[in-house]
């Protein structure tokens, strides 16, 4: 593959470029030519179990003790480097990572030199879509997807890697791939030409749900989602329409499945020698539910900010509908005025205001109050972002809590009717089946409902990130 000349074309031709070695980036045959050049690597790297997938190479090395393990790892790295040098390949240590499957009390990390650089150590690595953590050897359940939970330990890593590779090979049944499989005799660890390859059955969607549902901890969210009064479609609407970045989306799904590394999770699930007390309040067990909606230290600021962001969507929709403002702003920039009025003694829109009544009323400060003295109508709107399991109870509690205030305001302003409207969405975006009825009571569109849900789940993600970073 030397002494070649190439041209690249878009709207114009490039000048001639001499290709001294290698294959062009983006070339159709480049991946196949690369595989042909590295497929015999496994014959030279004799220590450990090595897997090649395109230009990615992974090695699994084991030993009876740590001293022997470090020695084997260094020898394996040397063999790999010698093979690459002999075949004019370049190793990139900065893109390499070392994950050590170790016991809880083992804190030593080996110094493995690769191409003149020390391979950095990490707690986890991603290979063929599979996240492999350093504590995988404990045999504990790891989160690998919203509807897929697998139990893996150090002895199962090889089988899982083979399963991933074989599944991808079998997806492509082109003639070209079949030729590669036919010629792949003893050159690779998978031995694709073998007639004894085992087919791995794929789980159906219902089987995955059943497995997910059966998890005592990780299945809580699914059990809530399947509750009788929960709107399953709207509770997951943010996944389809919010436009949240993939990384944040995955983080929110991890929160829903309660696989976030809180102190409670570290102690009771990972069995690490740490205190399970909350790092902020120092009183309760630091579970993910406690962080999302039960910490007294987070309540005055972080929980309130999340709550207010949801409330701002409703307030702006009302203000625009009443022609009290022209355009709606992003909720995170909006600063609602405490009082907005249209006409003398006509329409009033109050934000977080204490209502003065003739009789003493305990709950006299709802989030939003709307009074229309011309139509003799009013609304008391209160927003809540509780935990998933508390959504139904919160709706009932809000209606009961503000009913005395509604009676007094009806008399004071001589209204024909006044309604208490609770707007309740959980920390993970769960809503009840009556959620869509808000569009009948309030001047809200489906976009407003989606925006409120997005504000809630993003607020939860930000709270968890900030807390775990302390």
- Tell me the series of helices and strands, N- to C-terminal: EEHEEHEEEEEEHHHHHHHHHHEEEEHEHH
Number of domains: 3
Spans of at least 5 consecutive residues with low confidence: 137-158, 186-190
How many DSSP E strands? 15
Q: Radius of gyration in whole Å, from Cα? A: 30 Å
The largest sheet has its strands arranged as 11-12-13-14-15
Q: If you average the pLDDT, what whole number results? A: 80
**How far apart lie the N and C ends?**
53 Å
Oligomer: single chain
Structural class: alpha+beta
Assign an overall shape. Answer: elongated
Number of contiguous helices: 15
Strand content: 5-15%
Biggest sheet record: 5 strands, mixed
Helix content: 25-40%
Topology:
Layout: E1 4-6, E2 17-19, H1 30-38, E3 49-53, E4 56-60, H2 66-86, E5 113-114, E6 117-118, E7 124-127, E8 130-133, E9 141-143, E10 149-151, H3 157-171, H4 175-183, H5 205-213, H6 220-225, H7 232-235, H8 237-241, H9 246-256, H10 263-268, H11 288-293, H12 299-321, E11 339-342, E12 347-351, E13 368-372, E14 377-384, H13 391-412, E15 417-424, H14 438-441, H15 446-468
Parallel strand pairs: 14-15
Antiparallel strand pairs: 1-2, 3-4, 5-6, 7-8, 9-10, 11-12, 12-13, 13-14
Helix pairs in contact: 9-15, 12-15
